[in-house]
Amino acid sequence: MALMKYAPQALKNLFMKPATKKYPLEKPVYPDGSRGHVTISIDECISCGMCARACPNGALKVDRNAGTWTIDRFDCIACGYCVLKCPKKCLFMEKGYQTPGPEKKEETFTKSPEVLAAEEEKRKEAARKAAEAKAAMAAKAAGESKPAEEKKD
Ligand code: SF4
Ligand code: SF4
Predict the structure, then answer these.
(1) Per residue in 22-66, pLDDT tens?
(2) Which of 43, 46, 76 to mutate to test the pocket of ligand 2 (most atoms within 8 A of CB)?
(3) Closest to 42 measured CA to CA, from 34, 33, 51
(4) How far apart are CA 138 and CA 135, in angstroms?
(5) In Å, what is the CA distance from 108 to each residue of 68, 70, 102?
């Protein structure tokens, strides 16, 4: 009796295309709106850390000095908040999923040597300007206090 119940569907399936795909030979097509996984254009990142502060799961780490951005994909819930918060728009939700692997590990992206060198140069320039401004203010303060001291004499 049960056989008769399923026979029409079984016959129909014989003439239908397979419902499964020959992955990985046949690449999947992800529908619009699927979130996939977070990725970064690391050289555009300014290491502000807003993405890491916005992440509800603490899945992100930003190291300004090392020029790295690290994600723990096992903690990421693909909510997309980091992408929304990034002021440089260098984070993206990329369709598709990561290649499966045997280990649970973080993924770290590092800025290119050229970008790191340019950032180091900017830091030095900013430090030099700050030192100059400090020296100028100290000189101005010394100049303003001098007449008062002279008046006392
Ligand atoms: S998508 Fe959500 S959970 Fe994943 S890293 Fe971004 S903010 Fe964190
Ligand atoms: S919010 Fe954007 S620019 Fe800021 S650290 Fe994260 S990825 Fe970099």
Answers:
(1) 888 888 888 888 889 999 999 999 999 999 999 999 999 999 999
(2) 46
(3) 51
(4) 5
(5) 7, 4, 17
Q: What is the DSSP string of 44-99?
A: G-----HHHHH-TT--EEEETTTTEEEE-TTT-----HHHHH-TT--EEEESS-PP
Give the ligand with the smallest distance to the CA of 58.
1
Domain range summary for the chain, segments of one domain joined by +: 35-111, 112-153
50 lines ligand 1 (CB under 6 A): no
93 Cβ below 6 A of ligand 1: no
The fraction of the chain above a pLDDT of 90, given in percent, is: 63
**pTM beyond cutoff 0.90:** no
CB 35 within 8 A of CB 94: no
Question: Is the CB of 71 within 6 Å of ligand 2?
Answer: no
Lookup: tokens for 56: 């509800």
Write the CATH number of the domain with boundaries 35-111. Answer: 3.30.70.3270
